[in-house]
Amino acid sequence: NAGVTQTPKFRILKIGQSMTLQCTQDMNHNYMYWYRQDPGMGLKLIYYSVGAGITDKGEVPNGYNVSRSTTEDFPLRLELAAPSQTSVYFCASSGGTGVQPQHFGDGTRLSIL
Amino acid sequence: AQKITQTQPGMFVQEKEAVTLDCTYDTSDPSYGLFWYKQPSSGEMIFLIYQGSYDQQNATEGRYSLNFQKARKSANLVISASQLGDSAMYFCAMRETLTGNQFYFGTGTSLTVIP
């Protein structure tokens, strides 16, 4: 059971570089989410999507972009990486009703140096 | 106002004892779901237990139970017979059915099980 798969697991970027964090799910979930978790802190919502072609900003969208061309994939793009974006990034998906939990990927640990 | 409040930044419990992790929530949606997640030091987020707002009975999953008090808007997680492997961060979350788009997370409680 793959669930939610994130790649890469670890990455070091230089300031100003760009990269895409990949996320794919095989549960046919309409809802997908990107969070960041800074050390010792809770989750902050970056972007989310309620279906293919639809995305919306969360609490901390600045410096990030997303796209949702298919139900399965929800990549997160970092443009012009900054040290403040050093964090662990989690992708999650869920079904469409209030009773369904989120399923999380294992996270991507990103360092900007 | 915070949608989810966890007031215990850190908790300690003796191995084999029970522990309660507090969670209160704020919503005007009559239909909602409450969730608890565990995050061990390895970092992954593990779904533990779910309670629906219309559920008559408290949810249970093995050693985990959810003490749901709707009038008080609380959804405390009870872990019975604590084990060393229960040491982790625990997050409470809510999803409102009307919008259903976002999950609201608390700030988490760090649980340490003492041998």
Structure report:
The complex is a heterodimer of chains A (113) and B (115). With 113 residues, chain A is mainly beta. Chain A has strands at 4-7, 10-13, 19-25, 31-37, 43-51, 54-57, 64-66, 76-78, 87-94, 102-104, 108-112. In chain A, the strands form 2 sheets. In chain A, strands 2, 4, 5, 6, 9, 10 and 11 form a 7-stranded mixed beta sheet that branches. Chain B is an all-beta fold. Chain B contains no helices and 12 strands. In chain B, the strands form 3 sheets. In chain B, strands 2, 5, 6, 10, 11 and 12 form a 6-stranded mixed beta sheet that branches.
SSE topology:
The complex is a heterodimer of chains A (113) and B (115).
Chain A lengths: L3 E4 L2 E4 L5 E7 L5 E7 L5 E9 L2 E4 L6 E3 L9 E3 L8 E8 L7 E3 L3 E5 L1
Chain B lengths: L3 E2 L4 E5 L4 E3 L2 E2 L6 E8 L6 E7 L7 E2 L2 E6 L4 E6 L8 E9 L6 E3 L3 E6 L1
Parallel strand pairs in B: 2-12
Antiparallel strand pairs in B: 1-4, 3-9, 5-6, 5-10, 7-8, 8-9, 10-11, 10-12
- Main beta sheet of chain A: strand number and arrangement? 7 strands, mixed
SSE order of chain A in H/E notation? EEEEEEEEEEE
Query: What Rg of chain B do the Cα atoms give?
Result: 14 Å
Main sheet record of chain B: 6 strands, mixed
Structural class of chain A: mainly beta
Strand content range of chain A: over 45%
Mean pLDDT of chain B: 94
Secondary structure: helix percent of chain B: under 10%
**What is the 3D form of chain B?**
globular
**Biggest interface, chains and residue tallies:** A-B, 26 and 24 residues
Q: What is the CA-CA span between the terminal residues of chain B?
A: 38 Å
Helix proportion of residues of chain A, in percent? under 10%
- Specify the structural class of chain B: mainly beta
Low-confidence stretches of chain B: none
Described by the principal axes of the CA atoms, the overall outline of chain A is globular
- DSSP helix count of chain B? 0
Low-confidence regions of chain A: none
Order of helices and strands of chain B: EEEEEEEEEEEE
End-to-end C-alpha gap of chain A? 35 Å
